[in-house]
Amino acid sequence: MVQSTPTRLRDLALAHQPDAALHMLQALSAEERLQALLALPATDLAALLQVLGHERVARLMEHFAPDDAARILLRLGHADAADVLEEMGPDDAADVMEELEPAVARGILIEMDPAQAQEIRRLMAYDPQTAGGIMTPAFVAVYPHVAAGAVLASVRQRAEDAETIYYIYVMDQTQRLLGVLSLRDLVLSPAHVPVSKLMRTEVVKAQVDADQEAAARLLQEHRLLAIPVVDHEGRLMGIITADDVARVVREEVTEDIARLGGSEPLEHPYLRAGVLEIVRKRVGWLLILFIAGAYTSTVLSHFEATLSEVVALSFFIPLLIGTGGNVGSQIVTTLVRAMAVEDVHLGHLLRVLIKEVSVGVCLGAVMAVATFLRAWIQGVDPRVGEVVAVTAIAIVVWASMVAAVLPLTLRRLGVDPAVVSAPFITTLVDGTGLFIYFTLAHWLLRL
Prior knowledge:
Blueprint: H1 5-14, H2 18-27, H3 30-39, H4 42-52, H5 54-61, H6 66-73, H7 78-87, H8 90-97, H9 102-111, H10 114-124, H11 131-134, E1 141-142, H12 148-158, E2 167-171, E3 177-182, H13 183-188, E4 206-207, H14 212-221, E5 226-230, E6 236-241, H15 242-260, H16 275-302, H17 304-309, H18 317-340, H19 349-378, H20 382-412, H21 422-444
Helix pairs in contact: 1-2, 1-4, 5-7, 6-8, 7-9, 8-10, 14-15, 16-21, 18-19, 18-20, 18-21, 19-20, 20-21
């Protein structure tokens, strides 16, 4: 009989085989590992923790989302939870603690080393969406008068606890950031030279209350491994590293993709998200799009007489509004991505509009030929084919204008441009496209 993963983990813990238990856990995906640990009774989980050791458990926990790591800590005693958190990076530990109930968090902090507990409390005081919320205080900093040789010796001693040793920060007695020194420059410098002679005083840094996305972009733009975070008095508070930025970018991309699809981001991984959570995230946008889409039926009823005189016009409604929606979706997707990486901003509005209208004219001409050929193949009146062709150009150009202007305008108003999702643009162009279609038909066919 094949044993379940939790049972095998329990048996390995009881047999005091930490290496085998660790190997089994590492062979699982993050989701499978989480479910296996949560399936263990509390006593077996505590036994596994004791066998693996707090440091190994902490390394495993750092690969979980903060809320998932918190679920595991809740099944441990305060003392064991404190021991695990002490082995984690202070920024990761703070993220996990923020997911716990305040009373539970206080109980665990009491069991921790006072200095580490104070560090975590300080990090928890910052807004999670700011640079302060994602920074770590585990950095190497020295005073300007210290010689390079002494600094190198200090780096060796502190390397295990520091988040990164590739940058050494220089500060004065008040913790005000004075400069930065790379590990490469330090290693290549004579041992007797003070770091004040080696440091670079022009430092790329982020304010502690800056938005986390802005801080992430700063690190990416300058291609650094880490950037310091300072308060408004210029005091060094922590650093943001490349792995922190990767997490921020992953979160932002996830949110943008969800909104582009006409939904809100899920709070949990898809497979663990409940039906009601998914419904709640999607129903709002669906209702908004439903209301917006009602305009389409209003346009159709308004031009009912036109449709009754030339029934063939109805044949091309899906084709025309679908084309307009597709063009709008292409532009919105491209622009939202360009804005996310700061390739495009409001000052480029006119250039973007001119470019997209030019592209729209070219694409519209192609679609005009395609729609006229389609009308000819169907054997409809050539005059209807002409109307369809002209409408194709008009709708494609109109969709290009709307999709080019709306995201940039919303960014200026402080609204996330990702909310101008493909479904929203499609719904907007559907109604207005029909109005354009029937208005042109009314004029060109003299109805």
